[in-house]
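Kindly inspect both lines:
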Amino acid sequence: MPAERDPDILHPRLNPDLIGHEAAERDYLGAWSGGRLAHAWLICGPRGIGKATLAYRMARFALTQTAEPAPPDMFGGPPAPKTLKMSPEHPVFKRVAAQGHGDFRAVERGWSDSKMTKRKTTIAVDDIREVGSFLSMTPSEGAWRTIVIDAADEMNPNSANAVLKVLEEPPKRALLFLVAHNPDRLLPTIRSRCRRLDLKPLTSQQVTILLNRYRPSLKSGEVVALSLLADGSIGRALELDDEGGVALFAELMSILGELPRLNITRLHALSEKAIRGDAFRTLTGLLNWWLARMVTLGARETLDTAAEAAPGERALVQRLLAAAPPAAWADAWAQIGHMTTRAEAVNVDKKRALLSILLSLEATAQGRAA
């Protein structure tokens, strides 16, 4: 199941700020001012980088517009809008935040329990059934109707087909904003009917700015580590902080520092943690990220200029790349990814799975087939 939102940060519907996606905003505003506005926008990129925040900004902007966008003429006219930023005190912002605007709807995964503590794994057709009828109605408050679907790649086949019917015959003055973490999961016919915006991961500096905003009590070393481990996702950085990711990664690096022969006692101690909560997912996620990072640094020969995600990381990478070439570690990374996916899919013993994964690295470091 996709991770729930961090309770310490604003829901994208309530968030007035966005960092790092100015180019996407310019594309949308340029299409609006130039009379090239698409009826559906597919906003893609990794989790936790601000896709939904952008979608709500785009939707709120449209709700403030009173006329059909048209290209500028020779007689001038109102100046083209320069930003999607809107004050949280703006009436449209407040009403969208409260989901009380007559021309706006938000679609997310429904709740799986009556206390609304856990969401369903997919967006069902019942969650999305009114999309077509809502968009086909005449706007009740302004010139436009808007819907945000977060996230569209979480729709089941029936809900996806319901959205496709809307896209095949798009209503006038209706805008649909589809957020997608993995757009390849969407029907090709849905993707082909949308204007696509591909958002890039945030820079380490941008993640650092947001970490200082959302977690001001973090120490500087923790912020540096999280900004690297998160791989451009503030959502992932906050999730790792909640899961003790910095400490787990440091312990993982310490254990791997003993390669080419691992300490079996320390391996068992670390593997014991894999059965607690989400520790297996966190540990394997960190390990997969780090192996990909090591292979990339080795292939690009950029190790000397890369920041360390943990003390001693650079020396460890140098030693492992000397023990086996990047291609061998790439094979190990691919195999571990397969082992991780299988362990989570068939619900095997997490402790034993993590032991097998780490011992496969020992085999690679010793020049043996894993």
Notes: The chain has two domains: 22-198, 243-365. Residues 22-198 form a domain with the Rossmann fold fold (CATH 3.40.50.300). The longest helix spans residues 279-300. The CA atoms of residues 190 and 217 lie 43 Å apart.
